[in-house]
Structure prediction request, 135 residues.
Amino acid sequence: MADLVKRCVDAGLKMTGQRRVILKVLGQSEDHPSVEDVYERARVLDESISIATVYRTLGLLDELNLVIRHEFQEGYARYEVNLDHHHHLVDLETGKVIEFQNEELEELKEKIARDLGYELIDHRLELYGKKLEER
Prediction:
């Protein structure tokens, strides 16, 4: 949490009490919460927080690249703190989002970009699937 607040201050974002609460909610989230999820969790900590404040704050954090906004083909955005590089597998039946890292995949992406004459600067990878039935 302290690191996230420092990153916000370093980016020039004024740290109000309500923004600190929203950052706390994001920092403690083990899922990828929607705006409504963040709002509901923040209201438990501070009843004065409005949904508009949550929208504005998440928008600012996204612009500053401090959070990552995901769509996951659900019709609404989900957010996560931008801490490390990873990918997502979304279970289409439950909506569960599984984070993963894979060194072979990282090497393959770099190779593809190089083979096409590019330096890979950024990318996103989202996989969508259904759990295999156990035999």
Remarks:
- The chain has two domains: 2-81, 87-129.
- The chain has five helices and five strands.
- The first strand starts at residue 67 and ends at 70.
- The two ends are 43 Å apart (CA to CA).
